[in-house]
Amino acid sequence: MTEKLTEIASKLNRESRFDDMPRLIFITDNKTQPHPEEIITRLPSGSMVILRDYDDDNRVNLGKALRYICKVHNIKFFVAGDLTLALLLEADGLHLPEYMVSEAETIKAEYPSLLLTTAAHDEKGVMVADKLNLFAALLSPIFPTESHPETYEDEEKTIGVHKLNGVSKAYKIPIYALGGINIKTAVKLLNTKIAGFAGIRGF
Q: Residue 2 — very low, low, confident or very high, per pLDDT cuts 50/70/90?
């Protein structure tokens, strides 16, 4: 992620009511970013990393290595979709795909110190996360993105700035914009009161 984009994220974070939250979230994906350690070492202190890479046969060892780097650089480390692995790696938190949100209350009760974030793809997803008092919601796709090629053909399949702005102001949960974030699109998100950006390719 370029310095300019980091500056935009910092400004967004300062102007929101979530200035104690990470302003940047990097989501790992070896196919797109084969050297996640290089990205993590460039992240500002206080950022956050989500270990995705669901299909990586070496996910445990990858997680151990990235967890160590995150500790050194004062970056929060989350594991996506695998509670057992999150506990094994002593992760700061667990990122829940939207289909796992129904498990949030049970997980919170059994592991109260484990922070929980969730993916959301519409206002309903954010509303559920808000009611569960989760750490944050990653709302996507905001802009057309390679992760969802259909969004380039039909922008109605994106959230867009207007909807993001409305949702971010309607709920108390910190919201991170995900999907198609770059310098040109990031400036459009100023004044939306979101906590920051999340991304894979943007870094």
A: low
Taking the C-alpha atoms of 107, 111, 116 and 119 in order, what is their torsion angle to the nearest 10 degrees?
Answer: -20
Q: 99 and 136 in contact (C-beta within 8 Å)?
A: no
Other beta carbons less than 10 A from residue 148's beta carbon:
15
CA distance 195 to 46: 13
Q: What share of the chain is helix, strand, coil (3-state, %, to 5)?
A: 40, 20, 40
For CA atoms 136, 73, 38, 67, the dihedral sign is: negative
CA distance 121 to 66: 27
Cα 165 from chain centre: 17
C-alpha dist (Å) from residue 194 to 7, 17, 133, 169, 197: 15, 8, 16, 8, 8
Report pLDDT digits (tens) over 30-71: 999 999 999 999 999 999 999 999 999 999 999 999 999 999
Placement of tokens 């310095």 in the chain: 3
Q: Six-digit token pair at 31?
A: 């196919």
- H-type alpha helices, 41-100: 59-72, 83-88
